[in-house]
Amino acid sequence: MGTQDKQRLAMRVSWSTIVVNAVLALLKLAAGMLANSAAMVSDAVHTFSDVFTTFIVMVGVRMSGMAPDKEHPYGHERMECVAAVLLSVILCATGLWIGYDGVQRVVSGMSGELQAPGILALAAAVLSIGAKEWMYWFTRAAAKKVNSGAMMADAWHHRTDGLSSIGSFIGILGARLGLPILDPLACLVICAFILKAAWDIFSDAMGKMTDRSCGDTAEARIREIAETHKGVLSVDSLRTRLFGDRVFVDLEIGVDSSVSLDEAHETAQQVHDAIESEMPEVKHCMVHVNPAQRSAQD
């Protein structure tokens, strides 16, 4: 799948989730206000934040697909990381606001000022759980297809919204069964889910922006490709670094010192091509040749 095809798929999925989220947020807000449910109003705010953060993801995906230029010779993939960091900050602010409002309502509830929410809020919670789980799988599938960290973060944002709706459902149901304090307590559960998601998204994005390695599994695969290639006597050094969702590889291989420069170069080129073709996530592989002595038994 080419860059343009990936961007078109990402935009189509993002616009779909924006429309669904906007409608769902309005329904949840109306249900929360009409049914007197603080948990459902908080859940609606969370869903409204999904609309805004998806716009950020769309901008990040579009910018990350821009071709390298003079100022950015390695490309723009890290713009997705920037989008993910912004998403995590917005999520954190949303979670803290919901948590603060929930604490205030719990305090009010301890004074006997709470009323049980109506059944409309319970129906809205069920609708939200189903819709958000669908959006999670829909966005996750597209994120894996285009290898987008920002879209995957957005998918998990949908899932946390669904989990928070489960918290809303439990709180609303408990409040209707005679414990009104459970409705605002559900706000605190929603807050915890949002803050956890914000931290996970932030830490993942920061790892990709600070030249973290691509991990043991991917590095083992790179070594395997190089070591099984004809002409490679050893893998002397391997370093990888994440650049957004792509990988840069610096590889040193040992080649028979008796072969010509042209032959050594051809071996390095073949290893380079094999790694980049068999591992699409590798943006560029730099292969350096070291002279090595072939063993007597070879």
Question: How would you describe what is shown here?
Answer:
69% of the residues lie in helices and 11% in strands. It has helices spanning 3-34, 38-64, 78-110, 119-146, 149-176, 182-209, 216-227, 261-278; strands at 232-243, 246-256, 282-292. It has a three-stranded mixed beta sheet with strand order 1-2-3. Strand 1 and strand 2 (246-256) form a beta hairpin. Helix 1 (3-34) packs antiparallel against helix 4. The protein is elongated. The two termini are 42 Å apart. The model has no long low-confidence stretch (mean pLDDT 82).
Which structural category do the helix and sheet elements fall into?
Answer: mainly alpha
Q: How many beta-strand runs?
A: 3
Side by side, the strands of the main sheet go 1-2-3
Question: Shape from CA axes?
Answer: elongated
Helix content: 55-70%
Give the strand content: 5-15%
Compute the separation of the termini in Å: 42 Å
Please work out how many helical segments DSSP would assign: 8
Radius of gyration of CA atoms, rounded to a whole number: 25 Å
Poorly predicted ranges: none
Which series of helices and strands comes N to C? Answer: HHHHHHHEEHE
Mean pLDDT: 82
Major beta sheet, specifics?
Answer: 3 strands, mixed
